[in-house]
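Give me structure tokens for this 609-residue protein.
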Amino acid sequence: MSTTPRKVLQSIFGHDDFRANQREIIEHVLEGHDAIVIMPTGGGKSICYQIPSLIFDGLTIVVSPLISLMQDQVDQLRALDVDALYLNSSLDSDTYKAHLAKLRGDPPDLLYVAPETLMKPSMRSLLGDLQIDCITIDEAHCISEWGHDFRPEYRQLHEMRRQHPESVMMALTATATPRVREDIKHALHLEEAGEFLASFDRPNLFLEVKPKEDPLEQTLDLLEDHPGESGIIYCFSRKQVDELSDQLRKKGYSTLPYHAGLSEKVRNANQEAFVRDEANIIVATIAFGMGIDKPDVRFIVHFDLPKSVEAYYQQIGRAGRDGDPSHCLLLFSYSDIHKIKYIINSKDDDQQRKVAETHLTRLLQYVESGGCRRRQLLSYFGENYPHESCDYCDVCTEDRQQGADVTVPAQKFLSTAIRTDQIFGAKHLIDVLRGGRTKKILRHNHDELPVYGIGTEYSIREWWKLFQMLQQRGYLHRDPKHGSLLVDSKARPVLKGEQPIYANLEFGDRTNGSSDTTDTSASSHAKPFELDYDSRLYSRLRNKRNERADQNGDPPYVICSNRTLKEMAAYQPQSEEALMEIYGMGPTRCKQYGEMFLKTIKKYVGAQS
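Here you go.
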């Protein structure tokens, strides 16, 4: 060892001092001990293996699944006169051969390599002749089937340790739950490795979740608070990325799209424009952001629901790396769940489906929680937040104005959940409250319950808003296995009339709970379509119905009503049983038209993914 870690930190990287845990990790590795490093995005993981690589005599291999990460880090290191290169599929044939020649003749300090490349027999043979002092596994959560980005080839990496037993091995990630950490240990045979677990808290990130009501306007409202600043907007599909990027550009914002459907040249150009501040906003799928070390991202918007808590945490980790305040907004709609479930159900592997369903359940628990967002997020990663309130999330800074008294409708909803044995979802409870005659209600004799029909004074949309509020405040939570609604013990004082509930739910004058307002009830029934439905899907279903009606020579309403189509567009059923629960779809209609509607819904949901 020709120098000290601190001298390398100061002379090469230009930092005066180490961040939390960095010095201890580096010294541990330089002493020849294996390490598992869990550090939040932006916490300085790369320094933990880059500095040892400049002190060790031999080669440090960095295994990474991310081409953008390799290129970004190698470019940064070369700018600091550090000898580093990478091998991945982005290189042309001549450059790839040149890099291999350098490995054989004058090995660099660091070699960044994709796991598929590393495990090739020819590559392992080449490396077998070199002195390898450190093997670094970056994004180590990819090794676990319970991680959010499982890559089977990562399971083979323990073979490198067997081939190079004298090497130190490091496994690093920003998003590992306790279960994933155990999986990393066993898969890499690192049971004796030192564990370094930094706090997952990013105190400069303001965490906010809002119901998705008018997502474009909600996004524009946030952008108005960050004029000229950098931000990333994540969307579920490529189509949504293109549409939103165009809409924002027409509003005068400096915006570029990023998704896998664009050519590599366009993606690289757009990413470079964002990094160089030539464009302020990137609208992207989850393909964007990994390995991008832009320090001044001031906001992250999840225009659509992410697939897991890990993915959400990793994506908001792009914000505020300079330590300044940054805003993270997640827009949540229950229709987004159907898109994710469609992807889950299309998986052939039962284990992968099980893992994906678990991830979705945990994400919903975070979104619907009535407690501090930061506490919830850190708890997911096995960390106890030491404070009752963080004072920097939407829950902890919520406007304390009472709003209207919604105690009586809240009691009705909670009572209905209890009377139906807490084994049903919100849609069924609302149907019971509003006196519906669905197959499920009749099959379970729920039309004989005392709560049946006691909520006709409110529309479906109003009940749905109330249900969301009760979940967000913790009076209700989902059964993690079945998805049914369970009444929390904190609801007891509400049910006993000992604790009122106030909320700004726009229930109008009917929040006093009186059910004798026949005019209002009639008005509610006269406007049954107050659903948060997908207007584009509704249009496609309507066109399909009208085409069939023309073929049959019948009026469209003979097939089904517009109300039926709007419920389909809201709940997006994908099985005949689920379709039977839609208003107006009995056995006969399902037999005649069910396949037509289900194909349309599945095709639409699939196109959004």
